TrEMBL record, chain A:
SUPFAM superfamilies linked to this entry: ALDH-like
Gene3D superfamilies: Aldehyde Dehydrogenase, Chain A, domain 1 (3.40.605.10), Aldehyde Dehydrogenase, Chain A, domain 2 (3.40.309.10)
Ranges where the Aldehyde dehydrogenase domain occurs: 30-481
Record key words, sorted: Oxidoreductase
Full protein name: Betaine-aldehyde dehydrogenase
CDD domains (alphabetical): ALDH_F16
The family this protein is said to belong to: Belongs to the aldehyde dehydrogenase family.
Residues at the catalytic site: E261
Pfam families recorded: Aldedh
InterPro entries: Ald_DH/histidinol_DH (IPR016161), Ald_DH_C (IPR016163), Ald_DH_CS_GLU (IPR029510), Ald_DH_N (IPR016162), Aldehyde_DH_dom (IPR015590)
GO molecular function, one term: oxidoreductase activity, acting on the aldehyde or oxo group of donors, NAD or NADP as acceptor
Transmembrane spans: none
Organism of this sequence: Luteipulveratus mongoliensis
TrEMBL record, chain B:
Keyword entries, A-Z: Oxidoreductase
Lineage, opening ranks: Bacteria, Bacillati, Actinomycetota, Actinomycetes, Micrococcales
Keyword Oxidoreductase: yes
Organism superkingdom: Bacteria
Species of the source: Luteipulveratus mongoliensis
Aldehyde dehydrogenase domain ranges (all copies): 28-238
InterPro entries membership: Ald_DH/histidinol_DH (IPR016161), Ald_DH_N (IPR016162), Aldehyde_DH_dom (IPR015590)
KW Oxidoreductase (keyword) present: yes
One Pfam family linked to the record: Aldedh
GO molecular function ontology, one term from the record: oxidoreductase activity
Designated name of the protein: Aldehyde dehydrogenase
Amino acid sequence: MSKFEYAPAPESRAIVDLQSSYGLFINGEFVDGTGSSFKTINPATEEKLADVSEASADDVDKAVKAARTAYTRVWSRMSGAERGKYVFRIARIMQERARELAVLESLDNGKPIKESRDVDVPTAAAHFFYHAGWADKLEYAGLSPAGSPPPRPLGVVGQVIPWNFPLLMLAWKIAPALATGNTVVLKPAETTPLTALLFAEICQQADLPPGVVNIVTGAGATGQALVEHPDVDKIAFTGSTDVGKAIARSIAGTRKRATLELGGKAANIVFEDAAIDQAVEGIVNGIFFNQGHVCCAGSRLLVQESVADEVVRRLERRMKTLRVGDPLDKNTDVGAINSKAQLQRITELVDAGEAEGATRWTVPCELPARGFWFAPTVFTDVSQTHRVATEEIFGPVLSVLTFRTPQEAVAKANNTPYGLSAGIWTEKGSRILWMADQLKAGVVWANTFNRFDPTSPFGGYKESGYGREGGRHGLEAYLRTGVDA
Amino acid sequence: MSPRLDVRKTYKLYVGGAFPRSESGRSYEIVDAKGTFLANAAMGSRKDVRDAVVKARAAQGGWATATAYNRGQVLYRVGEVLEGRRDQFIAEVAASEGLTKPRASAVVDQAIDRWLWYAGWSDKVAQVLGGLNPVAGPYFDISAPEPTGVVGILAPQGSSLLGLVSVIAPAVVTGNTVVVLTSEQRPLPAISLGEVLATSDVPGGVINLISGRTAELAPWLASHRDVNAIDLTGAADATDVDWADLEVKAADNLKRVLRPVGTGGDAVEPDWTEQPDLSRIRAYLETKTVWHPKGR
């Protein structure tokens, strides 16, 4: 037990007005789906939050038709300036309703309120703000050379997002799509649909023309119906590499475009000259932020051998101060695992780590009796072939490996089919720049980790997917440009 | 006095900076537009493709880390040597594509100019496509393009030189290395291009040229797990090739796919005489974003 215990500091959930059941959001209205429904629960308590419609292929078809009509008749004809004003409105309403969004996100997802309040919701609003300003400036994005037609939208975009950052991923998908003049049909994740449905209300408050944004809730079959719909021009997907490959196969031979943000197994590399306490903070943030449900999480810690023991010792000491529990408590650092299935997957991989001979250390802490929980865990004595070092765990589980030379660090860091992110901790500037050049990763954090910003492109190399989201680069994925325009 | 017997050229593969015959020992007959025999070309095999990928991978790191200025110089040198062999290419393009000499001359001139246009991009791409991101916080945050790695290319079937350089140059200028399946019926200018490359300081393995049956070789290139991107442009008009099948194979390791132009499932050969934009360069680039805190 730590010396100073915290008093409970629960955020009130009274601000959220939960309905017992939710329909689909098609053509500007909430409608009953023709499929069955499923329940979404609070992963911290397993209490049912609401029944949600499972959109059938027919429902998806209606949503795509609504998006097509809105695209043809309204959205593609509107000036960029007017389009931008709608996106600005959405950003402002998200800020106005920030607390409500944050509480609902923590209820449905299990993430700590301090993260939904301070990271997810403000960053989501920032994405709408940033992209709103692009709407009337697309010819300045450097995507179409002089003499060629200005960039044009693609049409109807089908978007499928994961459960780890439900609202933020929605913002990453919808904001650039709308700013560039496309209309969207978005499917949120099965376990976290509620903030997307609240976002639909925000679209209504913003008077967004009907059909510009459509939300279809459901599971894999709904997503597949959306991806395979013949009248969808582009797919934007964030999720697992396996599903990403299936999407790439299913759109092969068509003219559908795709951006895929997939899995990762990032190396967080700590050199002996690093500021160790800062590095430890970065390691903790890199893997325990959002319960490790982060595709770019720093799940492989590569420590220079000379400081490995000390880093692990200080890391374990720091981990003992992490507070695991009620997501709505403002002092909570690590919340609930998002679903039973995900908890099983984490448990299976951790068991494999022990069976393969790695040494496990788990924070000694009391976990709530109900809900899905996994205490922060570190594996040492990990070799590169262990499953905990090769497979994406997507949970609060860190594997520690060591290296001796910068070259060895690079070789080990790149020894993965993934290539999403990487971290470097050293006080030597020239080494940072050299390492950053060598690492096959779309985002490299030097002396920091897990930073995101709407102006900063994000995306992976290799099997972490293709395309970038955010920044000037992210616009390209939603536009016909140059000789194609 | 009997007329002089001409010395005919043996066309081989170009792999790893050398000119091997196919390991399969096979060759196939190349005829001109009127059906007259021109040469026997090496008929590359799956093994040749795999060997070429190994060479391309080995060469990629060095080529990508050469300075952009140096890559530009090397590629400009290719242009110089192409110009020096202009007459040879005019004859080969004329024979391969059934063009008149003036028309073939225009095509070769444009091919050389196209090569130079792309060569000049080597040290400009990062400035045009990269930049500093004004993030909301005390960070230095910069995005810059990097080559995606090894690129497999199905060269256009019709345009044997202009089309060929229009697909190779944008891939290699940024530091990718390539394995090219040459036009099946018109491979001769490609092999002569190999001779130009071999004598213009291009490191061995950066550009590898395999002649043969596109339908036989393309699936191996598309499914190869050490190939990072594939250009399916040459699927248009290739015998027994369905580009959708190749794209499915490419999904196995999430290769970046450059689809052929056309509408729906139809693939057509682009008009290579049109001035290109950056789309072919951009197709084989990854954007790397580096964050660093700012502070005292």
